[in-house]
């Protein structure tokens, strides 16, 4: 990708350790595309991980140089006790889910996807890390949200 001199990519690395901080990670991951094959719960290690293909809203909303790019980001939750899924089909690894938002309370994190899909992560304490894994790449598509009447 040709580097843009006016707005170089600074990889985002975030660590939320309180449920009030999850909204920051949620805003960066809004409209991410997540493959079922990237959703991994390791009960022995008490972790949940996923790979997201996130739209870089921070680049598009830059008034000086708005660009449409995506980047792969890793998301990692620690202290995981249990996972519950609604309309998430891991037996179809090619299935793609659109992440709409993440909400949290003291001991629960909910990943809300389109098509009424959800992952509920029960945790002993909040610890969520998100990090961009490489340089962003251009996309011609801007995420849109269809209204349901």
What is the straight-line distance between the termini? 40 Å
* Low-confidence parts: 1-6
Outline type: globular
Task: Give the helix proportion (percent range).
Answer: under 10%
InterPro entries: DUF2948
Protein name: DUF2948 domain-containing protein
Organism: Candidatus Bodocaedibacter vickermanii
Report on the architecture of this protein.
The chain is mainly beta and 149 residues long. The protein has one domain (13-138). The chain is 8% helix and 44% strand. It has two helices and eleven strands; from the N terminus they run E-H-E-E-E-H-E-E-E-E-E-E-E. Residues 1-6 have low confidence and may be disordered.
List the main descriptive attributes of the protein structure presented here.
149 residues, mainly beta, 11-stranded antiparallel β-sheet, 2 helices, 11 strands, 8% helix, 44% strand, globular, disordered N terminus
What's the layout of helices and strands?
Elements (H helix, E strand, L loop, with lengths): L12 E4 L5 H8 L2 E4 L4 E3 L4 E9 L1 H4 L8 E9 L2 E7 L9 E10 L2 E6 L3 E7 L4 E5 L4 E2 L11
In short:
By secondary structure, this protein is mainly beta. The protein has two helices and eleven strands, in the order βαβββαβββββββ.
């Amino acid at each position: 990708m040709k580097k843009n001199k006016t707005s170089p990519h600074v990889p985002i690395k975030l660590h939320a350790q309180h449920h009030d901080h999850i909204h920051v990670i949620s805003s960066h991951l809004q409209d991410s595309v997540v493959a079922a094959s990237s959703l991994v719960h390791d009960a022995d290690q008490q972790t949940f991980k996923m790979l997201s293909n996130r739209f870089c809203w921070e680049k598009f909303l830059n008034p000086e140089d708005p660009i449409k790019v995506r980047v792969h980001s890793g998301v990692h939750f620690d202290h995981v006790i249990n996972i519950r899924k609604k309309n998430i089909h891991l037996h179809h690894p090619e299935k793609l889910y659109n992440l709409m938002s993440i909400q949290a309370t003291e001991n629960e994190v909910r990943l809300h996807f389109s098509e009424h899909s959800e992952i509920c992560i029960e945790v002993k304490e909040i610890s969520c890390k998100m990090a961009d894994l490489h340089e962003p790449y251009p996309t011609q598509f801007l995420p849109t949200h269809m209204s349901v009447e």
